[in-house]
Amino acid sequence: MIPAATGLIPIPTGVVPVSDRVRGASQETASEHRGDQLSSGRRLAYVLLLGALTALGPFTVDLYLPAFPLLEDEFGVGEAAVQLTLTGTMIGFAVGQLIAGPLSDAVGRRWPLLIGTALHVVSTTVAVFSPSIEMLGIARVLMGVGAAAGGVVAMATVRDLFGGRRLAIMLSRLALVTGAAPVVAPLIGSALLEVLPWRGIFVALAGYGVAMLLFAIFSLPETRPKEDRATAETTSIRHRYRVVFSDRVYVGVLLIGAMTFSGLFSYLSSSSFLFQTGYGLSALQFGTIFAVNSVGLIIGNQIAARLAVRFGPQWVLAYSTGALLIAACAIPVCAQLIPSAWGVIIPLFLFMTSCGFTFPCAQVLALDRHPDAAGTAASVLGAANNGVAGLISPLVGVVSVWTGGISPLSMASIMAACAVVGILALWLIVRPRTLGGLSD
Predict the structure, then answer these.
(1) pLDDT in tens, 165-207
(2) Mean pLDDT on 110-134
(3) Per-residue CA distances from 407 to 267, 275, 279, 351, 420 (Å)
(4) CA-CA distance, 312 to 168, in Å (whole number)?
(5) Please, which pLDDT band fits residue 423 given cuts at 50, 70 and 90?
(6) Fewer Cβ atoms within 10 Å of its own Cβ: the N or the C terminal residue of the chain?
């Protein structure tokens, strides 16, 4: 448990013009980072607890993926209708983050987190008793809204405490914890389906939400001091949105993150049908393959942090976005050369690893530049990821009309298109050569 008295030193920030803030954010000194006053043990506690909180989102998305064919049979609907419940979750994530982020900048981190997590528990309980696919879809939207607060508050809390190179390291460690969620979630979901009906997955998810709510109540201190919320300027939602959207680099990184997540989510939304229906794998086999591919995400996260500190996150993005495109294009080619599921698994592993390189570098570039609007910056970043992904991923189903069903080609075509947009955003908007390295 992290006690409320953390020994943090509140630093009044004052009102700084947008251009000066953006220009000076990267020049913060170590003394301005309150997390530097924490012991290594307390930093580890923050990583583990905030990681578990953030993982509520991935668990909400991934835990029920192995149950897609069962939902299709029970409700008598097609693949597209089941996928829409996933799309609804992502749209809920987007809306929830846009609410929770600016609110957490204005009133502190705790209350938006508590309200959002409570909403998640209630809506997950509704999902357990849903009599129709429509009711399940509504519950899934609300689950997304509720789970969004956890991810936003966790990222904003890390930015409250750290900056520069330390921020890159802490975000990578947080990603290590949260990266385990998509690895184990399908495995847990598959295991639950061996002993429970699909509704049991949501019972387990509601229990996890209750545990996170208790953690937030008793173990998470407020990390945004009242001094930082004092003035009308810094508590104005309109001002904070103007701060982040006036930053060219932030806008470019926003597009890169959204396109990368959209490519990843195109895989997530179609993988169950592709592997279980297309290749005839069981739910447990699907969960295992999903976990193996997700290990690449963790590997990329950890290596990216070290490279970002040494060379700059923008140059890591230069290579990782190119690797995304190469891996996506390799999926249908390898599927033709290797007529088993391994023809898809191998290039997918490379794609997931490239995503692991991309996500933490995008987060560092976005958050390090906006310490006074960390909640807003994190919320817009997350909302763009989930909202755009929720809109783009159903295009896999549209393309499948011309490919004879969900196939490696229909999935990879959307993934490759997203990678192309990300590459263009990096070189035309972010422009890596205009950026320096991370501060200490």
Answers:
(1) 777 777 777 776 666 776 677 778 888 988 989 999 999 999 9
(2) 93
(3) 11, 9, 10, 17, 21
(4) 10
(5) very high
(6) N
Contact 418, 263 (CB under 8 A): yes
**Model's pTM, two decimal places?**
0.71
- One-letter amino acid at 429 equals I
Q: Is the pLDDT of residue 308 over 60?
A: yes
φ, ψ of residue 15 in degrees (nearest 5) = -100, 120
Q: Considering the chain, what is the average pLDDT of its residues?
A: 81
Q: Which of 295, 279, 267, 294 is nearest to 412 (CA)?
A: 267
- Distance CA(389)–CA(323), nearest Å, equals 19
CA distance 12 to 372: 10
Please, what is the angle between helix 313-337 and helix 408-425, to 10°? 160
| Residue type at 233 in one-letter notation | E
How many residues does this entry show for the chain? 440
* C-alpha distances out from residue 173 to 44, 166, 176, Å: 9, 11, 5
To 10 degrees, what angle do helices 374-392 and 79-107 make?
A: 170
256 in helix, strand or coil?
helix
Q: Which residues contact 329 (CB under 8 A, 6 or more apart)?
A: 412, 416
For 188-214, b where at least 16 C-beta lie within 10 A, e where not — what string?
bbbebbeeeebbebbebbbebbbebbe
Amino acid at 276: Q
Tokens of 426: 């990096």
- Residue 303: which H helix or E strand, with range? helix 283-311
Task: Give the tokens for residue 265.
Answer: 């989510």
Residue 430 identity: V
The three state secondary structure string of 91-159 is: HHHHHHHHHHHHHHHHHCCHHHHHHHHHHHHHHHHHHHCCCCHHHHHHHHHHHHHHHHHHHHHHHHHHH
Q: Which two tokens stand for residue 107?
A: 């009133």
Tokens 């990583």 — which residue? 47
CB 54 within 8 Å of CB 106: no
Q: What interhelical angle do 40-54 and 199-218 show, nearest 10?
A: 150
**Measured between alpha carbons, how far is 38 from 57 in angstroms, rounded to an integer?**
27
